[in-house]
Amino acid sequence: MTPTILRLRTTRVQPWQLCLERVPGRPTVVLGPGKHRRRRAATYQLLDAREQVLTVAPQEVLTADGVTVRVTAVARWTVGDAVAFTEKVTDPLGQVYLAIQLALREALATRDAEALVRAPRAPRATLTDETVEQLRVAATGVGVRLVEVLVKDVVLPADLRAAYAELVVGRQRAQAQLEAARAETAALRSMANAATLLDEHPALARLRLVQALPVGSRVELVHDSGDRPD
């Protein structure tokens, strides 16, 4: 980030800015929003104090089971200590960028590819709270305040993605077949119970038969007198 150096009679600082006043041989002074008169031999540097986003480019990382995955991450940050941000290192964001890259490698080195695929919200769960806190401490040392660090995506190789997709489809098919078998078993059990009930209650069986006849059908009742024809 290129700093803005002002050499004017007055310095106007906007509400979203920080201004560093530097006089040779004296500590740097941070000026707040407002209009400030320029001091003799002083230089003034403006910094944007608003929240910004640092995107970590996709990088290839090895998982615990030796699978190479591509990982992308983002960090929301602001200037925490303006003096440290401009005077401690030449590239504070580069330091934070490197720390996030190393944290991603360490996090994925302890997890296998299957866990990354199956775990809910797997990409975001890649960095633990302890790791994020360590990143915040490292960033604070160079004047950066990390608001949040998120892993956007963990992309598996194409052949593994295809294999996991087939695995998911196979599981869904097996689940569907299991549900169909359960439904068929329940239906057969219900039919068996109904058949037993009809055997035990003949009148109920005749009533069920009458109910099954088409509308308008005539039913002739035959009484069994017990006599047999000669």
Percent helix, as a range, is: 40-55%
How much of the sequence lies in strands comes to 25-35%
Tally the beta strands: 9
The global form is elongated
String of helices and strands? EEEEEEEEHHHHEHH
Enumerate how many helices there are, as a single number.
6
CATH topology of the largest domain: Tetrahydropterin Synthase, Chain A
Task: Tally the structural domains.
Answer: 3
Main sheet makeup: 4 strands, antiparallel
CATH class of the largest domain: Alpha Beta
What's the CATH H-level homologous superfamily of the largest domain? Answer: Band 7 domain
* Low confidence ranges: none
The CATH architecture of the largest domain is: 2-Layer Sandwich
N→C terminal distance: 118 Å
Radius of gyration: 38 Å
Structural category:
alpha+beta
Major β-sheet strand ordering: 1-6-3-4
Question: Quaternary arrangement of the chains shown?
Answer: single chain
Mean pLDDT: 80
